[in-house]
Amino acid sequence: MPVVVASDLDRTLIYSAAALALTMPDARAPRLLCVEVHESKPLSYMTETAAQLLTDLGDEALFVPTTTRTRKQYQRINLPGPQPAYAICANGGHLLVDGETDRDWHARVLARLADECAPLAEVQEHLLRTADPVWVRKHRVAEDLFAYLVVERELLSEEWVKELAVWAENRGWTVSLQGRKIYAVPKPLTKSAAVREVARRTGADLTLAAGDSLLDADLLLAADQGWRPGHGELADAEWTAPAIRALPERGVLAGERILRELLRTVRSPR
Length: 270
Prior knowledge:
Blueprint: E1 3-7, E2 15-16, E3 32-38, E4 41-47, H1 48-60, E5 62-65, H2 71-74, E6 86-89, E7 94-97, E8 100-101, H3 103-116, H4 120-130, E9 136-142, E10 146-151, H5 158-169, E11 173-178, E12 181-186, H6 191-202, E13 206-210, H7 217-222, E14 225-228, H8 233-236, E15 244-246, H9 252-267
Parallel strand pairs: 1-5, 1-13, 13-14, 14-15
Antiparallel strand pairs: 2-4, 3-4, 6-7, 7-8, 9-10, 10-12, 11-12
Helix pairs in contact: 1-9
InterPro entries: HAD-like_sf, HAD_sf, TPP-like
GO molecular function: hydrolase activity
Organism: Streptomyces marokkonensis
């Protein structure tokens, strides 16, 4: 039986320059591998050690990249190791099989959103109307599934974020603040649902997961075992659960530690 390893990417396995958290002396900093280029510039990194660990993990388990990124954003990433047979994009809205969208899965997701949530247009209009241009830099809609804002974090009104969360809750949506992005996502649009589908299709008897944000909480809770780094929304909230291990490492070294833990667990007798 295969082991499914479903992991968030940004600030879990891969890191922008701003998120690396290289606090050690320069001469002791780890060697880094660039795994994403955007507009001809390097954008995301992992340590070379993490790259080898991910390669080994891909050889011994079914590694499933599980991200809130759109398909286009995900396809910019060039991860080491075997090409994943499955990948989850748009927070579970798209299940990629050998790089192609599974249309049946996407149709099921759309039907559930239509039944259970306020329409995207209503949420988008609310964001455009209430967000202050002083701290908003971009308004974005992802895959016609959810919306997010790119903001100046130091200018952002925390009170506005709280009010938005309450407004969204009453309409079947959830709000998550990750770095410079505020996400508004329909509640049924979850990574965990897509991972369960992968486990069902492959007959997996063990699911492992990792993630750092509130949008990863359902993924971690659905797994048999999960790990979170010492940074991110979940760490800030001191969030935990019985099968979740909270690691102390922060930044790119947390990604390395997470992969070490995943690989060790995959190799352990069950």
